[in-house]
Amino acid sequence: MEVTPPAVARLAGERVDHRFKGLPPDAEGYTFGQLAAERRPLFTGGFTTPLLTLDSAALDHNLARLAGFTARHGLAFAPHGKTSMAPQLFARQLALGAWGITAATPAQVRVCRAFGVPRVFLANEVVDATALAWLSAELAADPGFRVIVYVDSVRGVELMDAALTHPLDVVVELGVAGGRTGVRDQATADQVADAVAASRHLRLTGVAGYEGGIPDRTPQTVRAWLDRLVGLARRFDAAGRFAGADEIVVSAGGSAWFDVVAEAFAAADGFSLPSLKLLRSGAYVTHDDGHYRQVTPYHHRLPEDGLRSALLLWAQVVSRPEPGRAYLNAGKRDLPHDLDLPLPRLIRSPDSPTPAPPPASPSPPSPTSTPSSPSPPPPPSTSATGSPSASPTPAPPSTNGRRSPWSTRTTR
Ligand SMILES: Cc1ncc(COP(=O)(O)O)c(C=O)c1O
């Protein structure tokens, strides 16, 4: 199952221009395909700072790691697309066996559709009548397209049903008190399922939720919540609530607890229909050196070689106005982050053009650093990517060029 190759391939025909930060000014007017084919060296190829890069070796590793994990554990995989929103990565995830792509909004589903993603798991409630009318039209036009959407209230079901003109598969979302969306109790779950059964267009096909929304997450609380989720599917099944469905979907899982999800879902068998146990990890694909390095199962519970941080931002020190202070030419729009600050990983200077880890500092570089500071990444084998949609094409190592003023690399 692959994303329509022509739609993804067409991206390589887009033109480099002012919309793409960091790409060489002298490549203006090139197609991305032409620029990528030149394999320009990172430091001497005319790129400007700040420049966000994607480490192709780390990316390959992470893609393979989760594809292997899901295959070994009998899980279907719908990687969350919001992490990258990169159709080239969707195509690679699908080519590695993913069932489909997870989306958070109808706008993200549109991107998936534009690039031929055959199945989308819309892990959110949708009551936007225009978006639901669009979804109906997409489903009517393409019998091969499958989309599954969350529901968590009777009112939401009513609003959806009023706006839809085509049958739509839904799953009841299970939440937790103090958490995000999702029904809080069995009685509400039953009311929502009743409303779905009474609707004209909705068809109940399973249950889902996100353990990342549990307020106090430990292996025990996450497992207990996952067992509740599986239990909800069992009760619905026993009550004949999936009568109109082809399969029973049970879905959970981000990038912090997928090992516990796999354990809990291993016991999710014996339904009246085939089951689709769907994992939705997204952040795994680029990983990071902050939050996800701390919470990944590979850090705590899995003995295997873990995920690798793949997003790298090269910036320059542009001012040292007083001792102990240095300012980079990069800000929040170049280094978007929601949990932890970026970490300095490599420094390159005119005296030392081969990038090297920063000298050990007595004060930790970020509030979340731990005594076991991250091991330095391998020498750069990065590819320069423009923003927002340049192709993540691999480029060769590039430490051999003439001296460049570039000096600091940070990663998320
Ligand atoms: C509903 C839902 N599913 C899956 C994910 C993916 O989790 P992660 O980013 O940890 O991979 C998220 C992330 O926020 C989410 O909100």
TrEMBL record:
Keyword annotations from UniProtKB, A to Z: Lyase
Pfam families in the cross-refs: Ala_racemase_N, D-ser_dehydrat
Organism for this UniProt entry: Streptantibioticus cattleyicolor (strain ATCC 35852 / DSM 46488 / JCM 4925 / NBRC 14057 / NRRL 8057) (Streptomyces cattleya)
The UniProt record lists the keyword Oxidoreductase: no
Biased composition (Basic and acidic residues): 331-340
Region (Disordered): 328-412
Any GO molecular function: lyase activity
Record field: compositional bias (Pro residues): 352-381
Ranges of compositional bias, category Polar residues: 400-412
Protein name: D-amino acid deaminase
Domain Alanine racemase N-terminal: from-to ranges: 55-256
Similarity comment: family membership: Belongs to the DSD1 family.
Residue ranges of every copy of the D-serine dehydratase-like domain listed in the record: 310-344
Start-end of Low complexity biased regions: 341-351
DNA repair among keywords: no
